[in-house]
Amino acid sequence: MAKTVETIQPVERIRGRVRVPGSKSVTHRALMLAALARGESEILDALRAEDTELTARALEHLGVTVAWDDRRVLVHPPASRWEPSPEAIHLGNSGTSMRLLLGIAAAGKGDFVFDGTPRLRERPVGPVIDALRRLGVRAAYLGREGYPPVQLQSDGLTGGSVWVDARESSQFVSALVMAASAARSDVEVCWEGKAASLPYLHLTVEMMRRVGLRADWIGSNGIMVPGRQEVRGFRYRVEGDCSSASYFWAAAALTGGEVFTYPLTADALQGDCRFLAVLEAMGCTVVWEEEGVRVVGPERLRPVDLGMNDMPDMVPTLAVLAAFAPGTTRIRNVAHLRIKESDRIRAVAEELAKLAVPVDELPDGLVISGGGVKGAVVEAHDDHRIAMAFAVAGLKVPGISIAGAETVSKSFPKFWEVFRKLSHG
Ligand SMILES: O=C(O)C1=C[C@@H](OP(=O)(O)O)[C@@H](O)[C@H](O)C1
Ligand SMILES: C=C(OP(=O)(O)O)C(=O)O
């Protein structure tokens, strides 16, 4: 795709209502759980974007029928799990698709190759492959050890206990837990210490429960999944995407304006909704209403000192706000940000430096001295979250444009349309 440049015009105080698309994480999971069910499922308000279409297409390779229309997706699994796929299955740069689908594919029979972009080939899959091998799957790395492309030959999962190193990604555990429901006997998935991005594991377990699958926490370091579970096709309504909403919350925060985002509820399953508490700590007012949430920005943002391990995707948004908050903001404990769509610690530091913001890059975080921000051309690093977060800075400072703006299609294809409409009325 050709690189596009998007120039943002500053506005006095942003004001408006934004309908956010369906959650990417919830849509991926709903599609995959529907593929494991018996009979047809109906998924409402799903996100139709590059990554969720990659998941849908991968499932089609396995023999699942996926039919989208305006408001819903119908998913119909094949008679036997799975059909052969002679071609390699390409997953772009979608970490969620890659890690979670390795589990889903291994939960049935077949011989599959999973691959992606050069960047996806730098994003690890070793811990999930190690665990799948212990559950009886044959797997071979076709390139670098521990990374895609990977070939899986499976006859279904046995059962037993597996230990997973989940420090780099919660997705390794989510993959195993979802797949384990189809194993021949019970599977216990345990990890040492704290798993990265922990709220995504709660999301996985809660969504399984909602569609009728059992998965039980064993303390805070493990999940037990009974094997041979079967659920009938289900109907699932996808909640709005909090991560996508964060750019509009940030727009209100930065301009001292007011934005209402919907559909969202205070009991949303996504951990990124907790970013609202970060905004409150920075001085914003957050008001939940029946259909969504209203964020009102303060006259002046306050800096914060926070561990962001639970909400890695919110770090670019926070970093941009921090650039405008006079004082020092510290963002800690997010080493796993280096293996996202881009090395997000490096990318954020480089782009803030272009805007003349003093920033220290730590191995696992950032220290940002907020106050003075200048205009510049920001490079998106093929990372949708860098593009969307830095767009917000352009609402306050003239001369900001985003090169590589098309990358938003990964999670929010209409982002620029919605953003322009909001900023120019
Ligand atoms: O499971 C998910 O839906 C996700 C988990 C997180 O990844 P890690 O667990 O790899 O940090 C997050 O960054 C990603 O955008 C979506
Ligand atoms: C990290 C992300 O996604 P994924 O891991 O699925 O590529 C993201 O959306 O910010």
Automatic annotation (TrEMBL):
Gene that encodes the chain: aroA
Active site positions: 313
Cited NCBIfam families: aroA
EC number: 2.5.1.19
Enolpyruvate transferase domain span: 9-418
Protein name: 3-phosphoshikimate 1-carboxyvinyltransferase
Pathway(s) annotated for this protein in UniProt: Metabolic intermediate biosynthesis; chorismate biosynthesis; chorismate from D-erythrose 4-phosphate and phosphoenolpyruvate: step 6/7
Its job: Catalyzes the transfer of the enolpyruvyl moiety of phosphoenolpyruvate (PEP) to the 5-hydroxyl of shikimate-3-phosphate (S3P) to produce enolpyruvyl shikimate-3-phosphate and inorganic phosphate.
Record PROSITE patterns: EPSP_SYNTHASE_1
